[in-house]
Write a structure and sequence with these properties.
Layout: E1 18-21, H1 32-42, E2 46-49, H2 56-70, E3 77-80, H3 83-89, E4 93-96, H4 103-109, E5 115-120, H5 123-129, E6 136-139, H6 156-166, E7 171-174, H7 182-187, E8 192-195, H8 197-200, H9 205-220
Parallel strand pairs: 1-2, 1-8, 2-3, 3-4, 4-5, 5-6, 6-7, 7-8
The chain binds the ligand Cc1ncc(COP(=O)(O)OP(=O)(O)O)c(N)n1, 4-methyl-5-hydroxyethylthiazole phosphate and magnesium ion (MG).
4-methyl-5-hydroxyethylthiazole phosphate binds near residues 21, 140, 148 and 175.
Amino acid sequence: MTEHATPMRGWGAEALRLMLVTDDALAGGRPLEEIVAAAVQGGVSCVQLREKHLGTRAFVARGRALKALLAPRRVPLVINDRVDVALACGADGVHLGQSDMAVEDARRLLPPAVFIGWSVETLDDVRRAAALPLDYLGTSPVFATTTKLDAAPAWGLDGLRAVRAATALPLVAIGGLHAGNAAQVLAHGADGIAVVSAICSAADPEAAARELALAVAEGAR
Ligand SMILES: Cc1ncc(COP(=O)(O)OP(=O)(O)O)c(N)n1
Ligand SMILES: Cc1ncsc1CCOP(=O)(O)O
Ligand SMILES: [Mg+2]
């Protein structure tokens, strides 16, 4: 595989159809592994481990545990923010934001098989993405959300359409998404959706993931 092989360095862009982004604080005391396993059973195609408060060792340990859970199921593990943690736990991808490590530096440090996603908050970010070694973009956020309090202003559906027109990279929409608006978001140019609360806060994460997977499959038709 060449260094900038894409889509998704061999996983295929369909792996981005339904991404679960974890949030321990929304799990209501349930073990995160249990929620992830249920979500995969329900049909999530990718899992992003997002830990804002864990120490480095605990973050790596959790990454390794999730990697062991996901690898036999052929579901890629993405690490949010931390290239070092991704390397240590053998993750399949890294998601970086505008304040995280520069994409070029991450690309130099990561093995060629590890894919990189990047949050875009403005059309200027989208234009800059064309010159970066990226595998997908996260349009962040599409709708208002209470899950990420420091999120940029929402793109809205018209904004999402403008992002689609400005890039050929796979687009993952995130922010305020659920089974009721997933199809609409795909119709405005997203290749997939990422959700936090729609699965992590659900009483039945497997059923929630199944409903989302169905909505995404119907929206993609
Ligand atoms: C798929 C996806 N898109 C966007 C984000 C947001 O990343 P970032 O802007 O770095 O914010 P934090 O998630 O680190 O708070 C994401 N995580 N995933
Ligand atoms: C991590 C992140 N990045 C942009 S919005 C967001 C949170 C999305 O959470 P939810 O799916 O609960 O709206
Ligand atoms: Mg980040």
